[in-house]
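hey so u asked for the seq, here:
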Amino acid sequence: MNKKVLVISSSYRTKGNSARLAEQFAKGALEAGNDVEYISLHDKKIGFCRGCLACQKTKKCVISDDADIIREKMLHADVVVFATPVYYYGVSGQLKTLLDRCNPLYASDYRFRDIYLLFAAAEDGDDAEKRTLDNFDGWAVCFDKARFAGYVFCGGVNDVGDIEGNIKLEEAYRLGKSV
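ran it, structure tokens below
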């Protein structure tokens, strides 16, 4: 059975290292027979959550922007994949802003059951991986019908293209193929 897979890249560098991980995951998921949609946040307008919590009653956000479209796609996806560069041991600001704006999903009958994270950092120590996972897991655990199904971390990559030839690209492809 094919699944609806939504891959969301938060890299502002369209060929950046985390974006390349996302492309490889999407390629694997597509080759496995899934319906894959790839969204890049680099050109999206997404405002900050106001914390009003109106969305918990209405299941809609009071702000109207690109987050509405992405959130609607997340609502109907079986699998949601996030790709991010690591900034200061956490997900990028653009991804964090989107995650905050996904608060209406919490009160909704969301379809996704599997959540994946793909992330790349200049830092290659264990701290970059662990701290980013802890940061992201704080969002993922709020969705009790879903599970944090897997991740790929590639450290030691900073400049565009640094990831080329890295085994982590193959790992992202295989993870996508396993969906």
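The mean pLDDT is 95. The chain has one domain: 4-177.
lmk if thats what u needed
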